[in-house]
């Protein structure tokens, strides 16, 4: 076995470059690990750190995050101090590492060159927004001296692009040059970069091919699993009920509060479950709106447009789905204020009547006498609710799925879904009605899961092809 990187069947690359060029970001995204330290401050990574990427318990790629070069020109000067034939250059780099005092004088260079000379390949990162400088040239020359397999990545850190001039420069020092943005890269971009890695040395070709296929298979499995979980989550939200023993308005208020909390918690739990399953330990879910269950909000036409559902659509959809008609109050409700009525759904069962009259439902309904002590809230029957629950869940699932691990900001739930055609909305409302009426069967569950899977597949494919057209070709 040679001492070179090609002796390792699991590809192992050292990620190197100038400080603050997104080296750790690339490590984080490629290894799907959001514990890799990233910050706007230069010099964040102080020592070489290994990060492994595994699938099904097998390590398929090892990346070594390193500090940036600090004194590249001095190192280059040392290397070139005496005449060295091209074949002897790697030994000269080893001599640099062995030289007493260099670990103290050049700590960053020693930290990044040591794993390379122990056999790792090189992934050199440059900022595509800044033109190449003589300092970069010294770094590239040192890396060429190591004789290890080398790939360069242009990270487009700002819109102004120096990509072409980088391509020309890097092409002289590296076997492959690729553009890769660790803050936006989704699966196809990662696979494209991995393909280039697989061509650096023949020994890596088969393992990298396996890794690329493994990622595709993992994504397919992920789609199956998450569709199942999402459908179950939706059904649970639609069946959520909360009861309290306290009579009167206080009881109603309490039950209503419990219902809201239960809905919020289940949404948060579902998000957290995905987050943990997909290795995003730090990203939170930021919601910019609640469940739109308040009577006030229901009367505010703006909320009808939340998720793109127009008032007309809502009316039509709810009519077609055969939403409850009449103004009957849910049997479980002892008494109904305007608010509890809105939540229980009975009051707005006839969306037609309500929207058409543009009146507060409570005005016509009046204040019902208290019939029972026990107050039950839910399930929520407002016709918007099944659509909103589904749209929100699909939205954050998609956002989290597409989120590279170097991108640490919160997932912000914005009003962006609801582009479903009417037939699809009717379909969802039809399922909601079956569920709430206890007419739910396995075949409905299967159909719902397939529907969710289709929605996710289409939106992910859209995002993938958008990226293919922009950031990495
Ligand atoms: N806009 C933009 N910012 C980026 C990109 N890549 C990385 N960054 C940001 O640049 C900063 C530095 O990123 P790091 O990944 O910590 O860079 P590094 O090269 O590891 O830095 P050191 O460890 O200090 O050498 C962070 O704030 C990143 O979020 C990019 O493609 N675009
Ligand atoms: Mg770093």
Automatic annotation (TrEMBL):
Segments forming a coiled coil: none
Gene Ontology MF annotations: GTP binding
Every G domain range: 13-155
Domain of life: Bacteria
Protein's recorded name: Small GTP-binding protein
Organism: Marinimicrobium koreense
């Amino acid at each position: 076995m040679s001492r070179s990187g090609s002796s390792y069947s699991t590809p192992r690359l050292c990620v190197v470059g100038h400080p603050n060029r997104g080296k750790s970001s690339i490590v984080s995204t490629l290894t799907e690990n959001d514990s890799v330290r990233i910050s706007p401050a230069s010099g964040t990574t102080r020592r070489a750190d290994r990060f492994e990427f595994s699938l099904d318990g097998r390590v398929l790629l090892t990346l070594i995050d390193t500090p940036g070069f600090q004194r590249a020109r001095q190192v280059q000067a040392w290397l070139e101090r005496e005449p060295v034939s091209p074949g002897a250059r790697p030994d000269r780099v080893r001599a640099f590492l062995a030289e007493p005092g260099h670990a103290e004088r050049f700590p960053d260079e020693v930290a990044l060159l040591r794993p390379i000379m122990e056999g790792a390949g090189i992934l050199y990162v440059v900022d595509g927004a800044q033109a190449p400088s003589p300092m970069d040239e010294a770094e590239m020359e040192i890396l060429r001296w190591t004789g290890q397999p080398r790939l360069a990545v242009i990270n487009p850190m700002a819109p102004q692009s120096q990509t072409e001039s980088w391509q020309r420069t890097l092409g002289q020092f590296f076997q492959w040059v690729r553009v890769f943005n660790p803050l936006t890269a989704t699966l196809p971009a990662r696979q494209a970069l991995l393909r280039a890695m697989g061509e650096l040395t023949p020994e890596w070709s088969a393992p990298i091919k396996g890794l690329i296929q493994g990622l595709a298979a993992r994504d397919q499995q992920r789609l199956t699993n998450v569709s199942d979980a999402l459908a179950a989550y939706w059904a649970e939200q639609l069946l959520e009920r909360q009861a309290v023993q306290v009579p009167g308005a206080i009881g109603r208020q309490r039950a209503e509060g419990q219902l809201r909390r239960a809905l919020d918690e289940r949404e948060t739990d579902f998000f957290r479950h995905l987050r943990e399953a997909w290795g995003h330990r730090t990203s939170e879910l930021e919601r910019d709106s609640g469940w739109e269950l308040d009577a006030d909000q229901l009367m505010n036409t703006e909320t009808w447009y939340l998720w793109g559902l127009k008032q007309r659509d809502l009316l039509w959809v709810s009519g077609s789905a055969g939403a409850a008609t009449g103004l009957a109050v849910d049997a479980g409700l002892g008494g109904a204020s305007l608010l509890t009525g809105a939540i229980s759904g009975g009051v707005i069962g006839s969306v037609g009547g309500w929207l058409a009259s543009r009146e507060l439902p409570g005005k016509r309904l009046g204040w019902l006498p208290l019939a029972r002590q026990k107050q039950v809230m839910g399930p929520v029957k407002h016709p918007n609710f099944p659509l909103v629950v589904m749209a929100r869940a699909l939205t954050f699932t998609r956002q989290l799925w597409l989120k590279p691990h170097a991108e640490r900001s919160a997932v912000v739930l914005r009003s962006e879904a609801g582009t479903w055609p009417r037939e699809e909305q009717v379909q969802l409302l039809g399922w909601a009605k079956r569920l709430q009426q206890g007419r739910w069967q396995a075949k409905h569950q299967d159909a719902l899961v397939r529907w969710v899977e289709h929605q996710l597949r289409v939106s992910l494919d859209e995002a993938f092809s958008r990226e293919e057209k922009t950031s990495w070709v």
